[in-house]
Model the fold of this input.
Amino acid sequence: MNNLIVKYAIKVYIDPLNQRDLIRKDNNDKIGIYCWINNINEKFYIGRGAPLYLRISDYYQDWYYYTCTSLNIVRALTKYGMRNFSLVILEYTNSDNIILCEQKWINLLKPSYNYNIIAGNINKYKQTTESLDKISKATLDKKYSK
Done:
């Protein structure tokens, strides 16, 4: 596992596939910055969640993999499987500072799976019409599994 990232971690989940209940318990109703680390090639992704667990829970949902196939982290999780990733919580914050905190971690760690190097900037990445249709259909009646 990437020791640089772990050095900064507040929490580390070595087996997020089987630690989902603990991840929910630890991060429910919190706002923060997370990092998925590929344990095979040490590439990683930094993201934010407000609320944190609700965002992380997307990665456990089939609809997310179906609608976000263009994202590097989704392709990597699909290719290697979540069993080959660790989840790290880097920081808890509040909604007013979340973009600044995410940018701080992107600048410091330089994640290889992130498309955007500017936190909160979705303009650099444009969804295709097909992707937007898929997202709309898949999320219309989305239900989160426990």
